[in-house]
Amino acid sequence: MEEDSAEGGIGAETEARPHPGRTDSARVCVVCSLHTPEAADPRITARPGSAGMAELASLVQRLEVAVGRLESLSGGGGGGGSGGGADSQLVSDFDAIMEGPLAEYMSLSQKIGGDVLKHANMVKQAFSSQRELIRMASSSQKPSDAVLTSLLQPVSRAIQQVQSFREQNRTSPLFNHLSAVSESVPALGWVAMAPKPGPYVKEMQDAAMFYTNRVLKDYKEKDKTHVDWVKAYLSIWTALQSYIKTHHTTGLVWSKSGPVASASAAPPPPAGGAPPPPPPGPPPPPSMDTSSSSSSGAGGEDRNALFASINKGADITKGLKHIGDDQKTHKNPALRGQSGPVRSGPKPFSSPRPAAAAPAPAAKQPPVLELEGKKWKVENQEGVQDLVISNTELKQVVYAYKCNKSTLQVQGKINSITLDNCKKMGLVFHDVVGIVDIINCKDVKVQVMGKVPTISINKTDGCHVYLSKDSLSCEIISAKSSEMNILVPNKDGEFTEIPLPEQFKTVWDGSKLVTTATEIAG
């Protein structure tokens, strides 16, 4: 492998020549030596232990990025002046994100393993697809909108793959990790968000913090690796905002010289394949048969007769038949009951609607009520009123998903309870030391028998919470929800219903915005 020093970049710093008798692995030694002294000296090996493995994983990530840079330089060396300093800076600064925050995130994801590692590999693929798009933009002129849409497809497919993985693993013990990534990975769509891509990335980063705060809450006192994982992941989007502010303030910057980008130069789709193509459109309406000479001839005779009648002028009424009073329905009521049905005239032409295929019924999932590790899984329960979880422990959690018209009772003291996508669900519990989370639900009722510090209601329509005397000091956090009512016990043992505000008023007091709840007078 030889690099022309006149092209600049990595090839200008080191001349890579294969050693006699070596295979392609000799190239890896040259690439590693550009970044780390350990790779340059084969006598230096990774230190044992988890720290050594983490450094090795980080080294592998940096190595892959460097190999990609060398391949792009060797493959695009004939681009002429379009690959100059300003254009290569766009790519190298993006590589700094992949070698820095993204590599750190990958290393910590490897430590956590499981679904988090699988998810991280998908995120890495999404960044690789975006890097190829930026590299193309740095050496090509902006194409037409149709071609640009096809060039954006690899990044779009990678984002969809990340989000689909989260939906397919809703019962994962690391669901909050997956949700944080899934909610924020659309930030990679900034390449199509002119003229303000930076604020769009910030908005997606803020969406992730709802779930990263949960991760911090769950692991702050347990495992520092997860805390570092949150910091590393959020730093990716912070670095991307800085990169956009420096190079792409009003949108993805394309080269002013060089060839116009083509769809054939789009990067390959991520591993896992592209989504299925859209279904074919409806068939065209049947064409009207105008070839019949008999119908056209009859139409011509009718028109001639019509014009002849019009030309009669006032004499046209002479051909009308006289109707006597005995034949008029408004003067002879007996005729009204004898009148036959009114014939409707011919309907105007309309294209027949294609018969819509009936949607296939969704496969009914089996009901689940089991303890998996430290998580009680309650899923797909339909019309069951006597669901009971007993023999609970402080470290256990309850996760109820897609339960309908059912009632769940949780005895003892438990860490947290989550109701997700449930309808007409009843929940009765004693003590929760963490949080009761109600999300994506409809018409649910929750009764506290003991104590709970926090109740969170998100994206829910219809929620009644019955508090006990010991839980009156709990915090209730709500967002994007409606028809929420808190029922507080009074001295007579009855409950007083108090609605949570849904409408707010915000005013500027000269130094800050002040928001207060408003009441609508009936």
TrEMBL record:
Region of interest: Disordered = 1-23, 258-303, 323-367
* Chain segments annotated as coiled-coil in the UniProt record: none
Q: Where in the cell is it found?
A: Cell membrane
UniProt keyword Aminoacyl-tRNA synthetase present:
no
Instruction: Give a GO cellular-component term.
Output: cytoplasm
Give the Basic and acidic residues compositional bias ranges. Answer: 14-23
Per UniProt, which keywords does this protein have? Cell membrane, Membrane
* Signal peptide limits: none
Q: Which SUPFAM superfamilies match?
A: C-terminal domain of adenylylcyclase associated protein (SSF69340), N-terminal domain of adenylylcyclase associated protein, CAP (SSF101278)
Q: Name one Pfam family in it.
A: CAP_N-CM
Feature: compositional bias, Low complexity = 346-367
Bias class Pro residues marks the residues at 266-287
Offer one example of a GO biological process linked to this entry: cell morphogenesis
Q: Tell me the ranges covered by the C-CAP/cofactor C-like domain, including all copies.
A: 366-500
Q: How does it sit in the membrane?
A: Peripheral membrane protein
Q: Record's InterPro entries?
A: Adenylate_cyclase-assoc_CAP (IPR001837), Adenylate_cyclase-assoc_CAP_C (IPR013912), Adenylate_cyclase-assoc_CAP_N (IPR013992), C-CAP_CF_C-like (IPR017901), CAP/MinC_C (IPR016098), CAP_C_sf (IPR036223), CAP_CS_N (IPR018106), CAP_N (IPR053950)
Per the record, the major location class is: membrane
Cell membrane among keywords: yes
Molecular function GO terms recorded: actin binding; adenylate cyclase binding
Q: Which PANTHER family does this chain map to?
A: ADENYLYL CYCLASE-ASSOCIATED PROTEIN (PTHR10652)
UniProt protein name = Adenylyl cyclase-associated protein
Native organism? Salarias fasciatus (Jewelled blenny)
Gene designation per UniProt: cap1
